[in-house]
Amino acid sequence: MKGTFPINKFRELETPFYYYDTRVLRDTLAVINKEMAKYDKFSMHYAVKANANPKILTVICENGLGADCVSGGEIRAAIKAGIPADKVVFAGVGKADWEINLGLDYDIFCFNVESVPELEVINELAAAKGKVANVALRINPNVGAHTHKNITTGLAENKFGIRMTDMDHVIDTALSMRNVKFVGLHFHIGSQILDMGDFVALCNRVNELQEKLYARQIIVEHINVGGGLGIDYAHPNRQPIPDFAAYFATYAQHLKLHPQQSVHFELGRAVTGQCGNLISKVLYVKQGANKQFAILDAGMTDLIRPALYQAYHKIENITSEEPIEAYDVVGPICESSDVFGKAIDLNRVHRGDLIALRSAGAYGEIMASGYNCREIPKAYTSDELV
Ligand SMILES: *Cc1c(COP(=O)(O)O)cnc(C)c1O
Questions:
Q1: Cα separation of 327 and 172, whole Å?
Q2: Could you give the CA distance from residue 33 to residue 247 in angstroms, rounded to a whole number?
């Protein structure tokens, strides 16, 4: 089964480009809101780094999500799209002074802090403005995730977060400061996680840490469990919407909360991944020694995930129904890693055919680069191409 696309409209456009199906995005957001509403005090801050296209952010804002930002630029993008500052959280190991000041000027909801030196700078900059910054401490829970090694973040060896053994000390430091208010704990163990057991392991660790805090009579206002829910890259047509019911139920079942505590989520990929496609044109079909290459006008500069993480994207020839043949699907960039897939079954390929790289709505367009002096690909939504 292949996806359905407005092929005639596509033919009028210069390739490569991103195509976002806003129906898939809206359906996804509707399921998130419906499943989240089953639980008291669950809320979602969309991880802007997955896709900051203004048209996408606007739809996300219309559906009431907040934003999880990892840079000043992302804070600006979220605010510009209409997301209220009191729904913006700011994470990241290396926040520059200007970025902290920007967050303070907007009175964002919370800074997710990753070290004592950062805490000190936030306290100092907030003091200079006569403000008090809400801070959550990002704890490195030393919980592994069954995902690609480049996208685990919650292991002791990763650069992220505060060591569990340092937690008490950092909390004491935060409590002693006049211009920060300690309001939450933050965690994020990695990305493209499909095994709910990984999230259960995180819940167990959070429960342990909460018990320790409770022994000190500390109850934080919120627990932020980060993002990381994966999508079905192999079956974008059959499973366009991730299993949010199971995801939220896992946390509802395993997190031990105090009555007044809220839970914050920061999904990125699971929100936007399946609505996006990179549409490309076949430049050449070339015979190799024991294979054939379909050479596209899109490359790793447009979608770097296969080159960076050995990621799989389903590839479809959306303009041919001819018999299936196997192709190595490659881009035009002068790098051997510029390969989208090897021995991929496609309807027979001709120069000029349109190829869809599916499930490219997260960590796709936003990671595009100008390497080889290439243009950043344009992006269209289904709303614009009717
Ligand atoms: C990247 C990131 C997310 C989102 O991760 P996904 O796998 O896209 O859901 C959430 N929180 C933090 C802190 C992140 O860095």
A1: 59
A2: 13
Q: What is the three-class DSSP state of 334?
A: coil
Neighbouring C-alpha atoms within 13 Å toward the C-beta of 1: 9
Residue 127 neighbours by CB distance under 10 Å = 15
Q: How far is the CA of 331 from the centre of ligand 1 (A)?
A: 28
Distance (angstroms) between ligand 1 centre and the Cα of 264 equals 12
- Name the amino acid, one letter, at 318: I
75: left (phi over 0), alpha (psi -120 to 50) or beta: alpha
pLDDT tens sequence across 250-260: 999 999 999 99
290 and 9 Cβ atoms separated by less than 8 Å: no
pLDDT of amino acid 150: 66
**pLDDT of 174 over the 90 cut:** yes
Range in 13-22, 156-165, 320-329, 345-354 the model is least confident about: 156-165
Runs of H (alpha helix) within the chain = 7-11, 22-36, 54-62, 72-80, 97-106, 116-128, 167-175, 196-215, 244-254, 269-272, 305-309
CA dist 242 and 273 (Å) reads 10
Q: What atom of ligand 1 comes closest to residue 191's alpha carbon?
A: 7
Range from 39-53, 111-125, 152-166, 273-287 carrying the lowest mean pLDDT:
152-166
Which residue ranges form the domains of the chain, and what is each CATH number? 22-272 (3.20.20.10), 274-381 (2.40.37.10)
Atom of ligand 1 nearest to the CA of 270: 9
Dist. CA 344–CA 352, nearest whole Å: 18
- The 3-state DSSP class for residue 103 equals helix
The residues lining ligand 1, judged by C-beta closer than 6 Å to any ligand atom, are: 47, 49-50, 68, 70, 91, 188, 191, 226-229, 266-270, 362
